[in-house]
Each structure stands twice: as structure tokens, then as C-alpha cells.
Amino acid sequence: MKITQKAQDLESFVQAILCEKIKVGEVVRQAELCEILGTSMSPLRELLVLLEELDLVEVKPRAGFRIIYPDLDFMRENMQFRVMIENHAVAFFLDVVTDDWIEDQIVRHKEALRGLETTEDLTKHNAFILDFDRDFHRTIVASMKNKAIAKAHEYTQTKLRIARQVHRRVPPRKTNVIAMQDHLTILDALRTRDLEAVQKALDAHFTTSARNTLVGY
User: Fold this and answer.
1) pLDDT value at position 217?
2) Which residues are 28's β-sheet partners?
3) Whole-model pTM?
């Protein structure tokens, strides 16, 4: 299976969970997964190998595959891993990030915040914010120029998307407003070129994200 096809199939699997076509914790047979994901058996088997490696499914002999329920340990472990990657990556990012990029991101984040207040299609704008958020963090990690770390970070983000769907305690509009405000704090720290300040802002962002997902207010 080509890498691009595997990524597309993984995204199809994630979307099926997010829209509850596949329910976490349930056992599903391969034939059912083929029908839900609109794929044939051969690419599904390759996808299932990846899903096992990512701890997203568990083989149940003679029964099928159990979709992992993303419990608190799952959330904690993946969040810790993501924090470790990004806190390390910002040291590289500070060496390459330009003032123009920072200022452009500040403008775009403020526009995104205004959109959350004024949009008539909140579902569409929330989806835009999620992509915007992922790209922001992906850009930081990409500065390391390490494909293995970038892929691990991408998979961790994917797993956290699933966990947030299950455990979300705060409405998406509010969490997205908070996320954009946190990003602006990170961008202000990047302006200073102070590594400790950037890492502190990142840690605060991740702490808030975890709290909003697991306990709310």
C-alpha cells in the first residue's frame, strides 16, 4: 500500500470514529470495517497492522478487532509524548522561524478568533480551526527535519483527536477560542526568542487542552 493511501485510510478510520460509524470499545469484524470504510480486504489488512501498532485496535481471536477505548491513561501517555516532542522541537524552531512568519500567524489567529464570534457556519469554522491548529504544531515539529519524529507526532495528534471526541467536556467553540488565545501567547513568546518562555507557553497550552478534554470547568 502506498504511504498516501495508508494515510487516507487512517483518516477514513478516524472520521468513522468521530462521526460514530465505528464506536470505541466495540468489536468489529473485518467485513464490517470494509463496508464502513469503503475499502477492500487487502488494504484493510494493511491498515489494521498500522492500527495495531498505534494501539487503536486489539485483535480478538475468532471475533474480530476491538476498537480501543481511549481511557485516561491513553490520553495522558499520548499528551506527554506530544509535549516532549514539541518542547524539544521549539529549540530548533527558534533557529529558523522568521519575524514575518510570527507576525503573519498573529494576524491569522486573530482572524480565526473573529470568525469564531461571527461565523454563520460554526461546524465548518470549527473544522477549519482544528486544521489550523494541527498545521501550527506540525510546523514547529517540522523544523527538526526528522521524518520519524514528524510521523510519530502526527500519529499522536491523530490519537488525541479520537480521545477528545470521547472525553470532551467543553463545547468546541469555547475550546477553539481558548486554543487560539493560547497560540497567541506562544507567538508572543516566540517574538522574544526566549526558549524558556516559549516552552512555558506551550506547557500551559497543553495543560489547558488536557483539562478541557478531561474535566472541563
Assistant:
1) 36
2) 65
3) 0.85
